[in-house]
Amino acid sequence: MNIKSLLLGSAAALIAVSGARAADAVVVAEPEPAEYVKICDVYGAGYFYIPGTETCLRIGGYVRYDIGVGDAGSLDGVNHVPDHMDDGTHSTYYKNTRFTLKTWTGQETELGTLKTYTETRFNYGNSSGDYLNQNASSADDWQGRNKSLSLRYAWIQLGGLRVGKDDTAFDTFIGYAGSVIQDTLVPYGGQESNVVQYYFDAGNGFSAVVSLEEGAGRVGTIDSYVPHVVGGLKYKGDWGAITGVVAYDSNYEEVAGKVRLDVKATDELSLFIMGGYGTDDNLNDNAGNAIDASGRGFYKQWGGNWAVWGGGTYKFNEKTSFNTQISYDDWKNLGIAANVAYTVVPGFTITAEVDYLNAGKFGDADFNNWTKATKKSNIGGILRFQRSF
Fold first, then answer.
1. Interior CA angle at 373 toward 369 and 378, to 5°?
2. In sequence order, which residues have a C-beta less than 8 Å from that of residue 135 and are 6 or more positions away?
3. In Å, what is the CA distance from 111 to each residue of 54, 102, 108, 114, 115?
4. Fold adopted by 34-388
5. 3-state secondary structure at position 7
6. How many CB atoms lie within 10 A of CB 320?
7. Per-residue confidence (pLDDT) for residue 46, from 0 to 100
8. CA-CA distance, 113 to 54, in Å (whole number)?
9. Phi, psi at residue 178, to the nearest 5°?
10. How far is it, in rounded angstroms, from Cα 330 to Cα 229?
């Protein structure tokens, strides 16, 4: 009996101790469920929801490497740079490496879609031009160096209202020009500006824009509270589009306009033609200033009153396309550009382009130091490598 009592007592003691220890045990909380990034397909491919919000974000950009050769002033060549052995001047490549970071956001609200877009560019390389006649501040621009860091775009759009930094609607709404690298051999308008814009979508292919703009640069930036004003109308169908824009330059009280026709001739071939006309009565109001005396404002940047641009794209296959553009203005400036773009693998494209400019009246004039070196006939080219993501 004593042994049985001893065994029963030992068992009771063990149960009591185990219960006490169980009561003192630390309870480990269940882990929080992981919050995975969710795909947002409302605004297209590449968007995802920012965790904890209803905002969709897309991050992208490109890395680009350009190799340019050719005549100075008009094309991407670097001519008449000092030689390191002090035996005269030489010509060399124009080189530029660029990293561009882009962001897009989108969110649905009771007032419409809220969007943003930003694009920041980082550049390293040298600058094109002829440095025989340059002043001391720019004489070393031919040397490789870290160049501009620029906030190229940064705008907010709610419904049809857009505010921030964008290119002028004089270019964006009509579609710039051709799909060539040097599309401004004959310039077609100013670009960067702070803007307040409103876009109208009337349906059935019709749309419109009104844009109040500050402009940029010595000629373009407004010098009073009166903004530049741009308006545009567009009709777009399966066959192509027809677009018109008109701009009022408040600095010089001048008007410029462009009309563009885009035609999808076949599945492989697309064509465009664009004509521009602008007044220039007040653009020579300061003969002592080379910039103002050139007869070019922020919008009417071509020579004389009128200009025309035309060209197209032919897709040989999914990887290869041919692009060309011809441009001509009232001052007899003739620009021709053509390239072949080849997509090596998705996201990586190599483009080889040849450019020609026959400089007319503006090329012969001595408005700026750089035009002293501009030849009557100029030829050059660019080889571009670009990885987009």
1. 135
2. 369
3. 15, 25, 8, 8, 12
4. Porin (2.40.160)
5. helix
6. 12
7. 94
8. 12
9. -85, 175
10. 24
∠74-243-61 over CA atoms, to 5°? 60
- The Cα–Cα gap between 339 and 66 comes to 14
**What is 143-207 written as a DSSP string?**
S-EEEEEEEEEEEEEETTEEEEEEE-HHHHTTT-S-SSS-TTSS-----EEEEEEEEEEEETTEE
Task: Report the C-alpha gap between 349 and 321 in whole angstroms.
Answer: 11
In the numeric block, the tokens 């029963």 are attached to 8
pLDDT, residue 128, reads 80
pTM of the full structure: 0.84
Helix (H), strand (E) counts: the chain: 5, 20
Beta bridge partners of 386: 64, 349
Secondary structure class of 140 (helix, strand, coil): coil
Q: How far is CA 130 from the centre of its chain?
A: 26
For residue 89, count other CB atoms closer than 10 A to its CB. 12
**Res 285 pLDDT > 60:** no
Exposure of 278 by Cβ count < 10 A (0-12 exposed, 13-18 middle, 19+ buried)?
A: buried
Which two three-digit tokens encode residue 322?
Answer: 């041919």
Mean pLDDT of 76-87: 74
Between 369 and 263, name the one with better pLDDT.
Answer: 263
Please tell me the total number of residues recorded for the chain in this structure.
389
Mind listing the pLDDT tens digit for each residue in 29-60?
Answer: 666 666 678 999 999 999 999 999 999 999 99
**Rounded mean pLDDT, 66-88:** 75
The residue with tokens 């609607």 is: 169
Residue 56, strand partner residues? 49, 106
The C-alpha angle with vertex 239 and arms to 236 and 245, in degrees rounded to 5, equals 35
| Integer Rg of the chain from CA | 31
- Convert the pLDDT of each residue in 131-166 to its tens digit: 765 554 566 777 889 998 999 999 999 999 999 999
Average pLDDT rounded to a whole number, residues 298-326: 97
Work out whether the CA dihedral 90, 93, 99, 105 comes out positive or negative: positive
